[in-house]
Amino acid sequence: MQNLIEIKDVRHAYRTDAGPLPVLDGLNVSVPEGGFVAVVGPSGCGKSTLTRLIAGLMKPDHGEVWLHGERVKGPRATVGMAFQNPVLLEWRTILKNVLLPLEIVPSKLSRKQAEDRARFLLSLVGLEGFEDKRPSELSGGMRQRASLCRALIHQPEVLILDEPFGALDAFTREDLWQTMHRVKEREPFTGVLITHDLRESIFLADQVVVLSGRPARTQYVLDIPSNGPRTLDDLYTPVAAEQLNILRHQIQIAQGRSTAEEGAA
């Protein structure tokens, strides 16, 4: 299967008053077309920096980012993004919030086609009937669903999810995980998920990439075999327990805790 995203030997550092702060160091990540990759790692290791590089919002100091066979040199209209904070505009209805990207990114859709698509997406995530509501009239989970629709409205090739469910309660978060599977089945895309939740990573992704501590490199890659549609019950199987144990151990290594704990033992 062809890789739609290629991160090749990427190095990047932020400029600070104290000098360069290395964040990424020889990072390599590949995402096949139609795949869904979750990226996990210690806080501050450069996960969000990775999403900005893929979206073309910043350029690496060294190395290359490729998207669909083209080197990324600037923002790409074929990339959709959803963040932890939905950032919906209170003076616009939910429907008009979802339509906002089409006012910025050129689209071949007519106004009616755009509205029909927005209504379809809102229905897909369980927000049918809320099109004319304002963001303040919706719960946090409902606002995040609307944010997801907004990220998908222009039919992006790549959907970047930067901890979109991190601020939600456990029940709402799990409900949105199931929604994500329904959305991907109806709206195919290549996904990159940034998360601190290991359960979320194995439930949503085909592959989990563990980044090392800063400056980050690709420390470990865990493939998640697919055996058909996933349900929350899949998180309570021996296979899932083993996957979570592997990831927890890798995070301990990335945090520099594993060796110290083994030495103490």
Automatic annotation (TrEMBL):
**PANTHER family the record matches:** ALIPHATIC SULFONATES IMPORT ATP-BINDING PROTEIN SSUB, TAURINE IMPORT ATP-BINDING PROTEIN-RELATED
Q: Which Pfam families match?
A: ABC_tran
Q: Which residues form the ABC transporter domain?
A: 5-238
SUPFAM superfamilies registered for this protein in UniProt: P-loop containing nucleoside triphosphate hydrolases
Tell me which UniProt keywords the record has, alphabetically. ATP-binding, Nucleotide-binding, Transport
Tell me the protein's name. NitT/TauT family transport system ATP-binding protein
Similarity comment: Belongs to the ABC transporter superfamily.
Gene3D superfamilies for the chain? P-loop containing nucleotide triphosphate hydrolases
Top-rank taxon: Bacteria
Molecular functions per Gene Ontology: ATP binding; ATP hydrolysis activity
